[in-house]
Structure formats: C-alpha cells, structure tokens
Amino acid sequence: MRGSRTKHVFTRHVFFALALAGLALPAFAQTDHRSPAPAKAAPASAAAPAASGPPIPFVSSNRAASFLKTAPALSDSPAPAFSGLAMPPLADISTPVAQSFPATNMKTGKLEIATAALPAVSPESVGVPAGTGLGADMWKGTPRAMADALLAAIEPTQAPVLNDLARRALTTAAVAPEKADAQRAAKPAMPINEAADGDATTPPLTLLALRVGRLLDFADTADAWKLAAAADAGLIDDTTFHRAAATALAANIDPSLCGKVKNFAATYSGANWGEELALCQIEDKNTKAAQVSLDIMQARPDRDPTFLQVVNRNILGDSRTLPSQLTPLTPALLGALRLANLPLPGGVYGHPDSALIPALLALPAHEKVAQLSLAERAAMHGIIGADTLSATYKSIKFGPSEIKAPLNAGETGLRMRALLYQAALASQDPSTRIAYAAKFLNTAPVALQNVAGKLLADMAGSVKPDKTLNADALQVAQIYMLGGKVAEAKAWLAFAPADFSTGEARNLWPQFALAGMISPQAYASGFDTWLDAELHARDQQHARNDAQTAALLFDAAGLPVPAAAWARLLSAPQNALHSNLPPALLERLRDASAANRRAETVFLGAALAGPNAVSLPAAVEIARALRRVGLATEASSFARDEFALLTHRS
C-alpha cells in the first residue's frame, strides 16, 4: 500500500509539472485506491464526462506529513529563510489593477462588491452566493488544463489567508476556464492514479466535481454540498457526489437531504448508498426498513463491519460501549456515531479525513485532550476556523473554582488555553480579561495565534485604553491586531511606549506596519530607527535575519523600503539556510499575477505554499502576486502572519 501511494503521488506531481510547463493535458482526475465504480454516460449538456473516483482526502496524500500526526513545536524548528536578497525582476506593478470583484476599501475597511452578468453561462459556472467571491471573470485567460491541474493539486496550507482565498475562489460563480480545441477537449486525459501501469483509464473529473472535492478537503462541507446539490446530473461523478452527500449527512447540515437519498441512489448509482439510506430510515424512526437495509448490507462483500456494529448494538440496540476500533472513520460511520451520541475514544481523533473534522469535534469525547489536540492542529493547518476552535474550547468542563481562578488550577498546555478562554469570557473585570488573554497569547504557538486572533480579541472584550493599564498596552494592541480590530489596536498602540527600538516593541513593529496600524508618515520616520535597532541588537544574527525578512515582505506587500536600507541589508550577513522553489510554479505564479488571472494566482499561491510551513521566498512571491491582482488587503494580512511565523522566538 505504501508503494502504491508513493507511485500515486509521484504520478500526480509529474502530470502537474507537465501542465505547468505548458503541455496540453486537458484535465486531471483523482481517484482513491479502491476499485472504481462504473462510469455513467453524461447527458449531452454535461461539460465533461463523469469520473468514478473521489478526490484524494487530505490525509491520504504523501506530499507532506499530515497534521494529524503530532508535529514538533514550531519554536523547535529554524525559521526558513534564504541566502541573498536579490529577487528576479518583475513587471511594473505601480499601476493599480482594475478590480471587477469584491475588495476591501483601505480607507473605510468595508467590502465593496461589484457584480457582473455571466456571459454564456456554463452549467459548471454555478457558485455559492456569499458576496466575497473573486469575480465572474476570475478564470479569464487561464487554460482549462491549468485549472484542472491546479484544482487537482491544491490542499489546505498553514496560511489562513490563502485557505480563505481558496475557499472563496472555489465557491465563486464564474465563467468556466476555456478549453483547448474541441478535439483536444474531447480526448480523455490520463488520470492521476494507478492506471498509469496500463490499466484502462477513466474520464477526467469535471471542473465542478473538482471544486466540490477541494471544498471537502478544505472542510467546507456546507458549501461543497450546496454546489453538489445545485449541479446538473452528470456534471459530478458518482463517487464525488456521494462523498459530498454522505459528509453533509454526517454533519447534519441539510434537513431535506434524507428525503432525497433514494433519488440520489438512482441518479448516482455507481456509489453504494445503503449506509446513508439506513441512517435516514433510523432518523425517520423506521427501524423495520432500516433493519432490511442493514441485512442487505451484511451480504455485500464491501460492507463496513464497524458501521454495522455501531448501528446494530449502539443505535438499534442498548449497548453503551462503542467498538474499540473506529478507524478508518468514514462519513457514514461518523453519521452513525452522531446518532449513537456516545463519548468517543481518543484514537478516533488521530487521522480523520479533513472533511469530517468539524463534525467530529462537535461530538462528545472520552479523552478531551485528544479532541483539543485535533482542534488546535486542525486550526493551525487551515482545516477549521476560529468559530469551531471556540466551540471546542467551550466544550471542556471546568469547575466554578477553576473558572474563577484559572491561573491557580494547575492546568497546562491545551487545557489551560481552554480554561483561560472560558474564564476570560466569564469575567467582568477588564484587567483580568486582559491578563487571561495575554497568558493565552504567550502560551500559544505562533501558527495558533494567527488563527485564534478572533478568540483573543473576544477574551479581551471591549476595553478602552486606560492609563492604569499602560504597562499592558503593547500586548493589548497585539491582541486586537490579531483579532482584526485595527481601530482598537491603534488606540492601544498610542498608549504603548513610543520607542520601537527595544524589546518586544521592536519585534512587533513590522507586524503593526503590515497590519496598517502605523501611518505612512510614522512608517517613513520610524523605519530607520527600527532598522538601526535590528542591525545593532545583541542577538545580531536573529535580528538581521528578521530585518531582511521584514524588508522583503514590506516590499512584497507594497510598503516602501528605502534604497539606503537595501544597501545596509545587503551588507549584513545572510542567513545560511536555502529554500528551493519549484521553478514551474514560481514562473507560472509571476505570469498569472502579471496578467491578472485571479483564480490561477490564488490556487498557484496555495500550491506554492504547500501544506507545511511557508518559506520566506515563497511568502514573498505569494504576497507580491496577491497584491498584483488587486488583493492588497489579503497580501498584507498574509505577509503579517508569515512574518510572525518566520521570525518567532522561543
């Protein structure tokens, strides 16, 4: 199995590289390692024939170590950087790019949305109404083969901004990317699976099926199901549609879904709907029909014995003990566990499919630390957001005395952060709330801080600057900055010590600048002071690396770096660590952003970032590319997050 998966990933990268190099591969399909279901003939209106395999789940990819395995602490790893500051020349970006998509007004901070009609709407162009898309023309200029390759390759990154942009792009109603000539478009593509050994190939996945699969990988089950449910029959292959429906059923997000399962089973007959039908019959309290469905499943060679055991013993029966082995966790099994409503053992939180994580975290747990660990790891790797993390923290039970005095409770690590969060929300005293939020901030890994900013701001509450809290002003400003409350952060920053040349103020100044908290005049006058302090700090090597990192990200995000500063930075010792970027990805990202191909730029940025920590060269290129296509606010936010990660100190 290991060799099989390695071959799968190698083939996937080979074809992705060929597409980036400009070879004519019309589409890429993904399948899992099970036997594919028979492909159905698509109707004449379908944009492409259906494929039989589902998108590869996030945890099945060998591209990088899964976040589901306990990763070393971020502070234990050296911050990735590269040697030398010279960047290849780029096209002039001083002229603003015309925007025909929602963008944030830098003065008002409000979202400005432009609308446009979709010319010659393709059935694959449907989207989820949200008001935060990237524009109906976001695919303009991108070949269909490139779009297919990118959608088959991307997965969640450790950059919250990139994950949010990817989700927005995947849900945008937009004109589908252009195909090559009709003959080439009709030619079936080599699927990225083990058929490369000479087995019969399967048709490529449609653009819509790829979008649904990627939304599931990004744990956006609700939007994935909305797209799948709105699709014309034949535009989504049986297995992808079944995965979307089964995941939505497990998460209980669509009350009307059960009423349509029989129709789905008839329309998408290449998938096995027996488990979903049984679950719906149980929810409808039709136990006799459910028992018939279970008996039919029992005779199938591909039956899931764990699912059958949970349903028969824990739902239809009265057993209060779950099976000891609940992995691999499938959508149907998770749906059964939701109906059983029994506390889950710790092992179930080790390696779940990313699409199932939000629903899994909502169920009761025997081992709350295992549940908390999954929640924080999932948050740091872009699978869940602040709201799901907040709900998980709140699900941990603490006594009244612990809530009243959390610093005396003896808790550490994960449980301490959950306790501090609950205690801060329960307190009415501003100084107490700030103290708890600061303690949370100081114990959380930097990657968690970037995601949990909203939680930190909620912990601090609405506290106006006060001279009695002047000593905490800098940290309160940081907390509000992480929470996206720039106005509040600015107000507190005014109470903080004005000298950014020493201590923590020097370390935070680049983040404040990238967050838009420092006026252009203050930035211009303060840059040299801050740079002097960095280049003459006691920890000179760290400080000089931080100064180089900040200057590169400033430049990429659009903040001016004086020529004299570049001269000083070039004369400083360079970091010895190197980071090699994939040339094809890098050049394509530059080309796409220069041509304002927004969707392609977003997905290429996610592909360049990858699932692990983003390197400095990649962060600079991604921030610059986002700014070039008009996503200036997102570019600055991304640069701020990455600066914090790249320069963190234990």
Helix-strand blueprint:
Elements lengths: L1 H19 L82 E2 L6 E2 L31 H10 L6 H12 L10 H5 L20 H11 L3 H10 L7 H14 L9 H7 L6 H10 L3 H12 L6 H11 L15 H10 L16 H5 L6 H13 L5 H10 L4 H5 L8 H14 L3 H14 L2 H6 L1 H8 L12 H10 L3 H10 L7 H12 L5 H16 L4 H18 L5 H9 L11 H12 L3 H12 L6 H13 L3 H15 L4
Antiparallel strand pairs: 1-2
Largest sheet geometry:
2 strands, antiparallel
* Number of contiguous helices: 30
Q: Tell me roughly what share of residues is in helical segments.
A: 40-55%
Structural class: mainly alpha
**Strand portion:** under 5%
- The radius of gyration over CA amounts to 26 Å
What's the short version?
The protein is an all-alpha fold and 650 residues long. It is built from 30 helices and 2 strands.
